[in-house]
Write a structure and sequence with these properties.
The protein is of the alpha+beta class. The chain has four helices and five strands; from the N terminus they run ααβαββββα. Helix 3 packs antiparallel against helix 4. This is Lipoprotein. It comes from Pseudomonas vanderleydeniana.
């Protein structure tokens, strides 16, 4: 019973964050990859699509903004800002509830894996 109440409290604290809310948090990942933005986004989406459904990919300036869905709802859980560079991409990951130690590490794991790995 206590664990159920705890789980509901965590979900309530997470609320329904918007993409703008998520982007106001400090990035949990800020790296450079040798992959082009579309190749990197495709890699991350392939990994996360299994548990979250397809991400929303939007062309932006010289790159892609990728909104990753939450596992339990259709609200956004994370935003990947992927900008093209001459030799690949610069990547910033913003996560909802980024300061919550109980959040899932799946998005960060996929984003880290795709820096140089293949799905």
């Amino acid at each position: 019973m206590k664990w159920g109440a705890w789980g509901l409290a965590v979900l309530a604290l997470g609320g329904c964050a918007t993409v703008s809310d998520i982007q106001q948090t400090p990035p949990t990942l800020n790296v450079i990859s040798g992959k082009k933005p579309d190749e990197y986004a495709r890699c991350v989406d392939t990994i996360l699509n299994k548990s979250r459904g397809p991400s929303l990919l939007t062309p932006h300036k010289s790159g892609i903004k990728m909104v990753v869905r939450d596992r339990l709802s259709s609200s956004p859980a994370a935003l990947l800002d992927i900008e093209e560079r001459s030799s690949g991409s610069s990547i910033k990951l913003y996560e909802s509830m980024s300061n919550n130690p109980l959040r899932s590490g799946a998005v960060l794991d996929a984003a880290t894996h795709c820096i140089s790995g293949q799905p």
